[in-house]
Amino acid sequence: MKAKLELKNISFSFGNTPAVSDFSLKVEEGSFTTLLGPSGCGKTTLLRLISGLLQPQSGEIFIDGVNQAGIEINRRKVGMVFQDYALFPHLSVAQNIAYGLKIQKTQPKEELNQIIEEAAQSLGIESLLSRYPSELSGGQQQRVALARSLVLEPKLLLMDEPLSSLDTKLRTKVREELKEIQQRLKITTIYVTHDQEEALSLSTKIAVINQGKLLQEGSPKQIYFEPKTAFVADFVGKANFIKKDGKNLMIRPEWFKIAHNSSRFEQSLVPADKILLGGTILSEEFLGSKTRFVVQTSNTDGKEAVTADFDTIFCSELRIGSRILLEAAKFWEL
Amino acid sequence: MGKINKIKQIHFLYAAVILILTVCIVFPLLCVLASPGPKDFVSVFSSSVWQGAMLNTLLECVSSTTLSVIVGYLFAYAVVKADIPFKKIFSFIPILHLMTPPFVGGLSFILLFGRQGFFTRTLLGLDVSLYGFRGLLIAQVLCFFPIAYLICAQVLKRVPPSLEQAARAMGASKARIAFTVTLPLCINGIISAALFIAVSVLSDFGNPMIVGGRFRVLAVEIYTQLTGWISAGTSCVLGIVLVLPSVLLFMAQHKFMKRQNEKFATLGSKVSPLPEKKSSAITRILLFIFCLLISLLILAQFAAIIIGSLQKLWGINTQLTADHFKTIGKFGRELANSLIFAFIAAIFSTLLASLSVFFVTRTNLPCKKYVDICIQIPAAVPGSLFGLALSLSSNFLHVHASSLMIVIAMTVAFMPFSYRIISTVFSQIKSSLDDASRSLGANKIQVLGTILLPLSRGGIFSSFIYDFVRGVGTISSVIFLISFKTPLASIKILNLAEQGEWGKAAALATILTSLTFAVLVAGKVIMFIRKKRNVK
Question: Model's pTM, two decimal places?
C-alpha cells in the first residue's frame, strides 16, 4: 500500500531542548496510527510538525508524496481535532462546520448548506446545528469538531488527545464511536495519546515514542506481545521482567496461571522450556473481573516480586501469605 | 499566486502599523529631543524660575499622589472589605467620576471653592483664594483617587479571605489584620497604583491650568512658553525634564504590577467563598462617613456644573435663567468638532491597538518588541509635551492640517489604554482556536478577522468608548493643535472659564458631559442587548 504520510529523519528542538530527533515513520492510506508516549515525549510536537503549525529544523515530511517544506498549515489540507476541541464559541454548530468552506469560498450557498447537512447526518448531529458550543456535551463537541474538519475532505486527520477531557465512562463510549466513524469514512488518521488502552483499542498501527525518538512501531498486538524494549513493554501494559539462563524475559500478569496451590516442587525437575515460579503472596488488589496479586518468588536467579492477574471467580481461595506456584503460559524474550 | 498575495497582505499591514507608530509617536518625540540646543538647557537649569517650577512639580506630584492613594485605598477598603452600608452605590461613584471629562473637575472647583465658591463663600462666608498649591491638591486628589480606588479594589478583592481568617484564628484583631496581613499583601499593587497616579499627576494639565494660579508646574509651562513662541527651546527642555521621571515611573509601575500579580499567582487566586467577619462598628461608621463625604463632594461637582449653567451669575445673581444654554448655539462648531474628532480617533486608536496586540501576541514577526514599546510610550509622555511634539513635527514636515493633527493627538494619547484592555481580552482566547482556524484553511489575517476580533468584541467596544470619552474631554494634548478653523469644545470651556464666563462654561460643560454620557449609556445598552441575544 502506498504511504499517505512519510516522515523522513525529522528533528525539532525548542531552543536547546530537543523535542523530536531523527524521527522517521510511514503511515498507510486509510490507517489509524497512534503516536503513544508519556507526557513530554514529543508526540504533540510531532503532530504540530505534521500539521504545519511547526516546521522541522531538519528532515522532510511528505503527504501523498509531496514534500511539505514551507507549506503552512492552512494549505496542507489536514484536519485537526484538539484536546479541548477548540470549537469557535461565537459560532453555531452549523457555522462552525461551515467555517472552513466559507474561508475557501468554493461552494455556492445552497451547496454549502447541503454539505453541512450531510456531514451532520453522517455524524448524528443534525439536531444540534443551531446550537452553540457551550450548549453541547463533551461527546457532542467532539463530533462537531470532527464534522468541521471532515467537510473539507482532508488528506489526514490529526487528533491530539481528543478523549482526555471526557470522564471515564463517556470516554469508552466516544472511543467506540470514533473507531466506527474512522472505519466508515476510511480517513487516514494520526492520533496522539498517552493512554495505552486507547492506543490498543483504536489503532491499526502504534508508534511508541520516548524522548523524541521512535522506539517501536507495529500493530497493537505486536507492540503488546512482542515489545522490543523494556520501556515499550512497560508502557503499553503491566510487565514482569525475569532473568532465566542469562536471557531477559517479559511476562504480562495475565500470562500466568496457577500451577499448584503450594510451592513444594523441585526446581531441578522443571522442564527447560517451561517457566515455573514458586513464592508467597504479598498483596492482593481487587480490580473487578480480575484480581492482581504480588508474589514474592525465589528462583535460581534470586528473589523477585512478580505481578500476576487471575480471573476473580477462579482465585477466591488465594490469601495473603499463602504459598503459590505460578506457571507462565507465555513469555517473550526481549 | 494566492499564497504570495496573502503573505504580502499580513506583512503589508504590519509594515503599515510600524510606519504609523514611528511617524506619529517616535518621530515627534525625536523632534522634541532634537530642537533645543545646549544653551537652552543651561538657561533653563540656571534660572531660578524654572528651578522653582521643577520643585513645585515635585511637590505637586508627591503630595497629590500620596493623598490620592490614601483616599483611594480607604475607599476601596471600605467598599471591598469593611462591608459598609450602601457599598454598591459607593463603588459606582469613582467609576462615574472616571468616565467624566476632566474639565468638569477644574470648572466645578472654581464654582465650589473659588472666590465666589459655594463652599468657601456661600456656606462659610470666607473671602479666601484657594487657587495655588492647596487648590491644586484638592482638585487633583478628587480627580485621581478613582484610579487608586480601582486598582486597590481589584487587588483587595483578590486577597484570599482564608489568609485573613487564619490570622484571626491566631487571635489577631480586625485592625491588626488590616495592617499586618491585608496591607502587606496589597503593597505591590498599591505602589503600582501610586506610580500610575504619579505619572498622571505629572502630565495633568487641566487642573493646574485652571486652579494652579501662580503655582507654576512643568506640564503647564511647556504650553505657556510656547504660546506666541516665546521660546520653543525652553519649552522642549521643560518637556524633556518632565518626561524622564515619567518614563522611569511608568517602567517601575509595570514592574510592581507584575510583582503583585505574581504574588497572587503563587498564593492561588481562587477566592474561597468563606463568610467575612465585619469590621468593628466604629471603623465601619468612620469609613461610611468618609465615603459619604467624598461621594457628596463628587456629586457636588456635577451639581455645581448643572446649577452653574442655570444661574445668571454664580454666587452673585442666583436667579435662574436659560440664557447660557441659548448661547450654546454659537458653540455648535466646537461641539461637533469635539465629537467627530474624538469618534474618528477612537476608531483609529482601537483599530491600531487591536492590530498591534495581534502582531505582538499572535505572530512571530520581527520587531515585535519595538511595536510593544512604541504603543505604550504615550502613557508615560505628558499630553502637553506630546501636543508640543506633534506641532513641532508638523512644522518640520510642513504639514499644516490642524484637524489631522488633532485626530492623531487624540488617537495616540489613549492608545496605551486600549492596548492594555485588548491584550487582556486576547490573552483570554485560547491559542488552540487560532490553530483550529488555521487548520481549516484560514491565514493569519483571517484568524484575526473571523475569530479573534469577534471574540473580543466586548473589550474592543469598551476600548472604543473609553477612547471616545477621553478624547472628547482632553485638553492638554490638543491645546497646541487647535486653530480658528478647528475649535474644540473642551478648550472653549477652558477659555470661557478663564474669562470668568462661568455660566457659559458650565452650560457648555453640561451639554458636552451629557453627550458623552449618552454615548456611554448607548454603548452599554447595545452591549447588553448583544449579550442577551448571544445567550439565547
Answer: 0.84
